[in-house]
Amino acid sequence: MKQYIVDAFTDKLFKGNPAAVCVMDEWISDGLMRNIAAENNLSETAFAVKEGDRYRLRWFTPKDEINFCGHATLAASFVIANFIEPCFKTIRYNTLSGDLSVEIKDGLFVMDFPRYRLGSVEVTDAMEKVLGTRPTAAFLDRDLLMVLSSEEEIFGLKPDFSAMRDLDGLCIAVTAKGTGYDCVSRVFAPELNIPEDPVTGSTHCMIAPYWAERLGKSTITAFQASERTGVLYAEVRGERVKISGSAILFGVSEILGN
């Protein structure tokens, strides 16, 4: 089985967020997909099978399957558009998060995702202990989003990962208003055995609506300030968020195990 490694949300190798992608003729067992994802030890491995005029898309962390991943959707779309069906301009997926679509436009992959809600929650001492600074606001959906007072705090953050496991949320995100970009962020996922995720499309379904409301604009340019860094372009449209980005191929391999 062929496997592609793609750096997502970047046009430069060794930047953005790497994802593994396997586009298959038929499904392999869940156990084998888990083993492949664990062996890859990337934040996500995407598996896709063509079903009618759509692809069914599934995402696995090194620990288990998850219900939504943005950067691995971008990576899968890059593989399908460049190596499987180059004629496609719009790719449609069936996923655990419902129907998703990706349009290729002006060299970017434009992904149509469901918007996360911004459920305000109390800022706690536990949050401050984890971050070493007190957030100005906090919101919870699948992920926990905490707002900091400056981008300098985002860049210099050294969180307590052991204490972070006690916070609610699958992913733990921090964000602040940017200077060169509308906003900056970092995302951590200790529950998934991912200390820091390099670039996170799914959590920007929460970050982008927050900043769109705060800044009074529907389009947001976001910078994720991980060590690898990445840039996301988001447009908030009601209950949907369009998130766009670039991708670049790192390598192709053959999986021999079964």
Explain what this protein looks like in three dimensions.
With 258 residues, the protein is an alpha+beta fold. It has two domains: 2-114 and 244-254, Roll (Diaminopimelate Epimerase, Chain A, domain 1), CATH 3.10.310; 119-238, Diaminopimelate Epimerase, Chain A, domain 1, CATH 3.10.310.10. It is 21% helix and 42% strand. It has six helices and 18 strands. The chain has an 18-stranded mixed beta sheet that branches. The mean pLDDT is 96.
Summarize the model shown:
The protein is of the alpha+beta class and 258 residues long. The chain has six helices and 18 strands. The chain starts with a strand and ends with a strand.
Main beta sheet: 18 strands, mixed
CATH topology of the largest domain: Diaminopimelate Epimerase, Chain A, domain 1
What is the string of SSEs from the N terminus onward? EEHEEEHEEEEHEEHHEEEHEEEE
Overall CATH architecture of the largest domain: Roll
Tally the structural domains: 2
Helical proportion?
10-25%
End-to-end Cα distance, whole Å, is 10 Å
Instruction: Pick out the low-confidence regions.
Output: none
Tell me, what's the shape?
globular
Radius of gyration: 18 Å
CATH class category label of the largest domain: Alpha Beta
